[in-house]
Every structure is written in C-alpha cells, then in structure tokens.
Amino acid sequence: MRTRIEVAPDSLFGPDNLPYGVFAPQRGPYRVGVRLGEAVIDLAVALDDPIFAAPSLNPFLAQGPARWREVRERVRQLADTEIPDEAVHSLAEVDLRLPIEVGDYVDFYASIDHATNLGRLFRPDAEPLLPNWRHLPVGYHGRAGTVVVSGTDIVRPRGQRRTDSGAPDFGPSKRLDIEAELGFVVGVGSDLAHPIEIDDFAEHVFGVALVNDWSARDIQAWEYQPLGPFLGKSFATSLSAWITPMAALESARIALPAQDPEPLPYLRAADPWGLDVALTVHWDGAAVSYPPYSRMYWSPAQMLAHLTANGAATRTGDLYASGTISGPDPDQRGSFIELSWGGSEPIHVNGQKRTFLEDGDEIVITASSPGRPDVRRIGLGEVRGRVWPARD
Ligand code: MN
C-alpha cells in the first residue's frame, strides 16, 4: 500500500521546508526522518539507504553538500508522489531524540541590542559595548555534553551566588533565565591549522536549529570575570528536534545590518547575508517576546570564519549558536533579564507579575521565516523545556 502525504496549505512544514530529525516509531529503533506536514518520512525505508538507519544525522551530514542537495531533491520528489505506507509515520506518534551527536559547542554574542542591554545591566557605570565588540564576534566554548533535545526537563541548577555581605553562599539559582537563539550545525568539518574561509560557509554548514541557552544569572554574575561563562550556563542547553537545512532558508536571506567599522578582511564576505527569521518566546503559553534574527550584527558565516581563524579544527556535529537574539524594542528581547530589566520591571504573564523562572514554568520558543508572497513560510519547529525544582 502507498500513501500520499497531505499537507495543509498554510503548513509551515510544506515541501519547501523538509527538516531532518531522528525519530523512533512505536516499537522501533531510532532512525533519520524528514518532517512533511504532520508526517515523518522514514528515509532508510523510503530511499532504501542504510545511512539513515542510524540514530543520528552525523553519518549523513559527513557526506557533504553535494549529497545534501541530492537527498533533498529526492525527498522533494517523494513529497509529490505516493510513498510506501511503511515509510510514513504520524508525527504525533513518534518519539524524537537529539538529532545530532554534538561535537563541540560554541555560543556567540552576536546581537548588538542584547550585548548593549547586558552591558548596561552588568556594568552600569561603563560603556555597554566593550572595545572589541564591533571588531569580532565575541563567543565562548560551551559544554557539548549537556546539549539536550527539546522537551527535556530542566532541573534548576545550584551554585555560588553573591550575597549582600559580598561573600557567596551556595544554593538553587534564584535568577534562572532563558536565551532565545539560533544554532548552526556543521556537517563537514575542517582540519587543524586550516581556517574556514568566510566564503566557504556553504561547504561546511548543513542547517539551523532553535536553541534555548538556559542561564543562571546569579551564578553567572559572580563567576564570569575574568574568564567568561561557566557553571551559570553549562547545566543545560536545549536544541530543537528538527534541523532545517540551509537550502530551505535561501528565500529568507537578507542584507546584513551595516557594520561600522568595516571588519578585518577575514570577516568580509563577497556576498554578505543575514536571515529573516522571526522568533516568539512563549512563557506558560503566553507570548512574551518576539526576537528578530534579522537584526543580528554578525552573520553565520562571520561566526564560523572567526571560530576557526586561529586554526581550530571543526567536526561533523559541531554546533555554534548565535547568542541571545534581541531587537531594539522592549518586546523583542530574547532573555528575561532584559525583558524585566534585571528583575526591576516585572512583566505580565497570564495576569501575574514575573521576572525570572519559577519551578514548573514551561518555555517554548518557536520561529519561522516570514516568507514572501511567492514563497511559503518556513517553520523552525520549537524548542521546549520545563523547569523542575533543584535536587536536594
Ligand atoms: Mn547564550
């Protein structure tokens, strides 16, 4: 028996999207699938190719961009035809796991509005942007082993927090926060001492995912100088279950905001581009913020060129995230420390005044490319997580 997958005309997951994930059908092993509408296509069955029978996208990603294009074309053809029943599953009935084996994880700080807001909050008596900010995409190496798939529960972290006396105590974070970000997945890595040239981005980067970089602001504020984020960030980073191929976002490419001063030559692309992707942050079901990726100062290609500029190698499955996405307006801020201005200006969530996360709160971040009249909108799925009490 064969089935044609019906897709609603207004679906954000039509044949122009086709994101990849790793799923398990009922009583089946994890394998690679592509989402079409509310269905998942089992690629190992539909394409009769065992590389997709793996519980991770990594073997496919390592095959490189010519193969990514070939498979995308074949899946687009499948979307237009009847597919064997055994290759089609209902999205509602499958289990989703982390789609990639994460290699190294880097988090950037590429939003000028976010960096300016945090500079004002953390260093109120100084220039909000440090002197390096407009010259390089600031970033740090995060903890790949604690990247978790959307839906994973987040246990409130414990750590050192400064008290009014100036000395620290130890306990559950009182200022647990989110960071709404996009993450870029490296498919083909690069060798030691061989930086990735800015115009070679497409040879290396496979796709985009949604990221929530959970952050304990009290732990972070006490520990971060002089070496940067550490335990305030490393307890969990949530990743969406679906990776949207860069090819699906061709129609979302837009000009970058102006960069002044002009960056050094290794950060100058022949044809610079940003992405018109609009995010929404939902707090216990209420939409509280609309971060615009279109405002990001540093481009995905600049971030990759910079993170390898010293000769650092990259591998299949490496993940680098943009940093919190914030815009200039109050309802475009991608973290609660910004939305509540350090906790001093509570925001209204379902009729309650809120600042940081409480136990039981659930955060869902969604995104889509707005699209144009001739192009369907592309959904980036969601990244979801609920806060659980600190363990005794
Ligand atoms: Mn971050």
Word description of this protein:
- This protein is an alpha+beta fold.
- The chain has 2 domains: 2-97, Fumarylacetoacetase, N-terminal domain (SH3 type barrels, Roll); 105-388, Fumarylacetoacetase-like, C-terminal domain (Fumarylacetoacetate hydrolase, domain 2), CATH 3.90.850.10.
- Helices cover 15% and strands 29% of the residues.
- It has 8 helices and 28 strands.
- The protein has helices at residues 43-46, 58-61, 65-79, 112-122, 201-204, 217-223, 300-307, 336-339; strands at 2-3, 20-24, 31-36, 39-42, 83-84, 88-90, 95-97, 105-108, 139-141, 147-149, 154-155, 158-162, 168-172, 176-177, 180-186, 205-212, 215-216, 237-239, 244-245, 253-254, 274-275, 278-283, 286-289, 319-321, 347-349, 352-354, 362-369, 378-388.
- Strands 8, 9, 10, 15, 16, 18, 19 and 24 form an 8-stranded mixed sheet that branches. The protein has a 5-stranded antiparallel sheet with strand order 6-4-3-2-7.
- Strand 3 (31-36) and strand 4 form a beta hairpin.
- The longest helix is centred in the first third of the chain and has 15 residues, at 65-79.
- The chain starts with a strand and ends with a strand.
- The mean pLDDT is 96.
- Residues 107, 179, 181, 213, 323-324 line the site of manganese (II) ion.
